[in-house]
Amino acid sequence: MTAPLLFSIVDGVGEIVLNRPDAGNAFDEPMLDAWVAALQQCHDDDAVRAVLLRANGRHFCAGGDLHDMKRELEGPPSIHKTKLWSGVHRIPKLMMQIDKPVVAAMQGAATGAGLDMALQCDFRVAADNARVAASYVKIGLVPGDGGAWLLPRIVGLPRALEMLLTGDFVEAEEGRRIGLFNRVVPLAELENEARALARRLADGAATAMRLTKRAAYQGLHLDFTTHLDQVSSHFVLAAKSPEHREGVNAFLEKRKPDFRV
Fold first, then answer.
1. 164/139 Cα distance (integer angstroms)
2. What is the Cα–Cα distance from 217 to 219, expressed in whole angstroms?
3. pLDDT tens track of the chain, all 261 residues?
4. Does residue 197 sit in the same domain as residue 214?
5. 117 and 210: one domain?
6. Does 261 fall in a domain?
7. Measured distance between the N- and C-terminal CA atoms of the chain, rounded to whole angstroms
8. Does the global pTM surpass 0.90?
9. Which domain holds residue 146?
């Protein structure tokens, strides 16, 4: 039986590969369980310095499996609540705890929770055939995996509401224009481009990047003075790290720093 998700660690990058291409990489319970296990290892293992999320096949992720949804139509409301909170929501809750940089490589369609999963990443590299839709509304649902919280913070409230309330597709170049994608590349170059970015991040100053990511995300919920107070503590931690020592010495010695030492 083919594994629904593949995971490996290569050169400091934890690579998570969605592997249900015949189903548009829609997730089922075995995929979610494997996804959670991979994310937990990325969180816990210091050998993982950056994370790459990508997908095999034509499409990035179709979100929840509609065949599963059909079977659940007659069930009590508690089934849906439990399936979200104790099932799918394990992923965004873990993603919010991971302070290492996370890159998504996206081709083809990402719809519903498939888009939400990509929005949880720090960087989104898209192929020129990528298209995304917050499609919940088209089947009478609300965004169930964080999309209504994340999308306004990424593209702004008016554009987010347009996507959320129409469910219309946004094509690759438009996605780049509104800030949904960091970059758009030819499909043939997607995997290499995204992996190169992940490896570049993995080569960086890990302590400084992790603290900076925390400061950026936590700062969205803090007033400015509280942010300055918090970041002054982050600064002290970074200043006493081996990476800072290496960075200063490399600059003075006119060489490229090696932050993996």
1. 12
2. 5
3. 799 999 999 999 999 999 999 999 999 999 999 999 999 999 999 999 999 999 999 999 998 766 666 666 667 777 778 878 888 999 999 999 999 999 999 999 999 999 999 999 999 999 999 999 999 999 999 998 999 999 999 999 999 999 999 999 999 999 999 999 999 999 999 999 999 999 999 999 999 999 999 999 999 999 999 999 999 999 999 999 999 999 999 999 999 999 987
4. no
5. no
6. no
7. 41
8. yes
9. 5-202
